[in-house]
Amino acid sequence: MMLHAVLALSLPAFAQASNPCAVSRVAQSPGMSVLLGWTYSLEGIWTYNLSMPDPAPLPAGPLPVVQKKSRGCLFYAAIAAAVVAAGFLFVAVASAVAFNRFVKAYTATAPAALPALVELPVEQADAAAERLKSFNESVKRGEDAPPLSLTGDEINALLARQDRELGNSLRVSIDGDRLKGNWALPLDKAKIPFTGGRYFNGSAAVKASFDNGILIITCDALEINGAPVPDAILSKLKEENLAKNVYKNPKTAEALRKFEKIEVKDGRVTIQMRRGA
Fold this sequence. Notes:
Elements: E1 21-27, E2 34-35, E3 38-40, E4 47-52, H1 75-80, H2 88-94, H3 99-106, H4 122-141, E5 148-151, H5 152-162, H6 164-169, E6 170-175, E7 178-186, E8 199-211, E9 214-224, E10 227-228, H7 231-239, H8 250-256, E11 259-265, E12 268-273
Parallel strand pairs: 1-4
Antiparallel strand pairs: 1-2, 1-3, 5-12, 6-7, 7-8, 8-9, 9-10, 11-12
């Protein structure tokens, strides 16, 4: 839903700042736009946009490289939420230490090892893609639809098929009622001083829910470059609704009004539409 991953990831949910510099996941389904994702807030230097379309059935064998399009599902906003909290660290820490020292402390010269990508049976991958496509079409037409439910492995397969680079840089998993994300993001495209050839490595766990029609995403755990963030920073993140700014986008707000529930449970993320939406 990631998605602003599913996974959403203006993307100020990743870093609350007036001039955010963003690495964003743009998730749009027909007739709606979701902007939620990763945002590094460092004086508005960098914007790196990715798109997530309605995925077609996955072929057997190696995943093909496909062109990025501008259509997709709100589901990816929830996916992206798995790592949305990480960018807050740039804001909190950069204000307290010299920038060069900050870069050396919180980035690395090599990507972190990510959990292996599970290769799904083609039948399961095709079924996941078809469920997502059908859900998107129902949202577009304003029709009732069965809940959309995907496992972490299905989410990773859909992400990898859509964007090989993203698939190599992000893994999503589900742990109880939490969405977890591990990432190793190359900073070469950022064009930020001192970050050439370096990587932003980390992991995060978030909780996602709806409360009276409002999407709420909170950070439950966060590690950067192999180390937990200071308790003072994490405690503040736990008090933030990381999705509060997604409603500033009219299309996003309109789309969210069509949803009744997000549930992370038993190894699945499930999104249920509101009847009559």
